[in-house]
Amino acid sequence: MAFGSIRRGGGAMFLGTHTPRLDEKGRLFLPAKFRDKLAGGLVMTRGQERCLYVFPMDEFVKVTQTFQQAPTSSKAARDYMRVFLSGASDEIPDKQGRVTVPSALRDYAGLDRDCTVIGAGSRVEVWDTAAWDEYLASTEQAFADQSEEVIPGLM
């Protein structure tokens, strides 16, 4: 499938699916069409469903600013922020477009060798390929059935 990013309003919308491999040092080749937007720095952290979220640095700053508006009296907000931010690692890709995935994040997402990298709008997600295939198979029917209920008027 095609893989790219679309710039909108100063940000990027990441799209598509790619299947790179981790090398023996735990480095991941970023897809070519994502590299420019991530070249200045990125933050990767724990995502939901045991994937990793990868944000361009400017997008990560926006996310953390939103967190600052959450009430610290909310246990759910505190818990979410703790898990999300404690796993965060800022990285700068090398000249070949590789980024090191810290071992704690590789363990969290079950990344060994085969990865699936997907564009998810303002972020990129990194999945273990078997976990992604399982996730996609389990959610495709719900996707087909609920498009009108989840986002009214979408299609």
UniProtKB/TrEMBL annotation:
Principal location: cytoplasm
Keywords noted in UniProt: Cytoplasm, DNA-binding, Repeat, Transcription, Transcription regulation
Domain SpoVT-AbrB: from-to ranges: 17-59, 88-131
Family annotation (CDD domains): MraZ_C, MraZ_N
GO process terms (BP): negative regulation of DNA-templated transcription initiation
One GO location term (cellular component): nucleoid
GO molecular function: DNA-binding transcription factor activity; transcription cis-regulatory region binding
Family of this protein: Belongs to the MraZ family.
Provenance organism: Janibacter cremeus
Alphabetical list of PROSITE patterns matching this protein: SPOVT_ABRB
Identification of the protein by name: Transcriptional regulator MraZ
Compartments where found: Cytoplasm, Nucleoid
Keyword Repeat assigned: yes
A Pfam short name: MraZ
The protein's assembly and partners: Forms oligomers.
Entry-linked InterPro entries: MraZ, MraZ_C, MraZ_dom, MraZ_N, MraZ_sf, SpoVT-AbrB_dom, SpoVT-AbrB_sf
